[in-house]
Amino acid sequence: MPSRSEYYGHYPVALLALMRRRSAIVFTSVFLFVIWFWNGTAPSNPIAGRVRVVDGLRIESNESFDGEWAFHRDHTNLRLDATQCDRAFPGLFEEIERPWRDRRLRRITLNELNSIEPRNGYVRAMIYDHQLYVVATDGRIYSREIATLHSIHRAIVSSPEPLPNIEFAFNSDDRIDSVALWGYARRQKDTNIWLIPDFSHWSWPETKVGTMREVQMKAEELEESGIWTWKDKVPKLLWRGAVMDLEVRKQLLEVTHRQSWADVKAIDWKDQKSMKKDLMSMSDHCQYKYLAHTEGNSFSGRLKYLQSCKSVVITHQMDWIQHHHPLLRSTGPDQNYVEVRRDFGDLLERIEWLQEHDDEAERIATNNVNIFRRRFLTPAAEVCYWRRLIHRWGEVSFEPTFFKEVNGNKKVWRGVPVESFLLERRLDWDPY
């Protein structure tokens, strides 16, 4: 039997070991509590850990949008949900709501879509389980159809919410039939057309304009760095373009001929001398206080580029409507452009007024850039528009079938995934 001293002599050793174990447990517990407390109370970074990239644009989680539009934070946020899109872009969706209201009681049917005559620039497609498929095409107009498919695809893959299965058709031509088609522009009487952002919102490579964001970034860099302040801008009306025997453009040239307040010149795309001497990049337009806009064969893709400048956009009364035109204001405190007669007969009067009221001219120019470049013509606004269109179209149209039958019993896919189509630019091909 051990002695009393031997028996109790083990206690300090055991007690020391126990205390060591308890210290380790306490330290670990305290460390975990601190980590938990910090994560629960420390200010969160609205970007860190919640950013990914789609088609070259940063996509921030929709948690970073707090209900109030902030350009630098939100303009490339492609993850806004439907409610946030409504709050960020009030008034943007009128050209979706208009045909949607009209078709609620007479739904778009498969037969109606089948009855649309395919013309040059025609694309038929469907969205099925969040995947875009190309079903049929007819002809091609430069890169327009490809650009629009890219835009739709970006809106789909960045959507934070489910999108409905739909089938639709669009045509990339300047003028299209007034049927249940998606198109870039319409006249007042063309009530059946659903308007979409035109092809150059993605890119217009043929004219070397580049992407929409490229134009805006160059304009921002030069205007917001102080290089082209309002007082430093050229106090003249600028226009460059091909006349194409269009009456409205010939009238602009006639009215501005030899006027000291105008820098208006026609471009001949096939004349190297004309191109070298007179061609100007779209961002270089921002050097001028006043920018003239004219329609083309129907709409002109120029307008949105002019709206990317802190300049006064001056346009004749327009016959053609684009998806963002409901936001145009020609009078009042929110005025963001100046409208003149279609023959430019009152252009001199308007220019003189702007020159005499330079503060008012700057206010109009500021409204222009704040409404369009800094809000409603941003990538965030564009994807919101596409997704609202997809939802509204789905509410008043049929749901597509994924397969078609061949030879009575064989089922085959009706479309080609857009990723493959964009690479091959065709619907059928042999391996290699």
Give the secondary structure arrangement, pairings included:
Blueprint: H1 4-9, H2 11-41, E1 51-54, E2 57-60, H3 71-74, H4 82-88, H5 94-103, H6 110-114, E3 122-128, E4 131-138, H7 144-157, E5 166-171, E6 182-183, E7 194-195, H8 212-224, E8 234-241, H9 247-256, E9 262-266, H10 272-278, E10 288-293, H11 302-306, E11 312-316, E12 338-340, H12 347-356, H13 358-376, H14 379-395, E13 403-406, E14 410-413, E15 416-417, H15 418-424
Helix pairs in contact: 7-14
Transmembrane segments: 21-38
Keywords: Membrane, Transmembrane, Transmembrane helix
Pfam families: Glyco_transf_90
Structure description:
The protein has 432 residues and is an alpha/beta fold. It is globular and about 75 Å long. 38% of the residues lie in helices and 16% in strands. The strands form five sheets. Strands 9-8-10-11-12 form a five-stranded parallel β-sheet. A hairpin with a 3-residue loop joins strand 13 and strand 14. The protein has 15 helices and 15 strands. The protein has four domains: 4-41; 51-88, no CATH class; 94-203 and 385-424, no CATH class; 205-380, Rossmann fold (3-Layer(aba) Sandwich), CATH 3.40.50. It has helices at residues 4-9, 11-41, 71-74, 82-88, 94-103, 110-114, 144-157, 212-224, 247-256, 272-278, 302-306, 347-356, 358-376, 379-395, 418-424, and strands at residues 51-54, 57-60, 122-128, 131-138, 166-171, 182-183, 194-195, 234-241, 262-266, 288-293, 312-316, 338-340, 403-406, 410-413, 416-417. InterPro entries: CAP10, O-Glucosyltr/Glycosyltrsf_90. This is Glycosyl transferase CAP10 domain-containing protein.
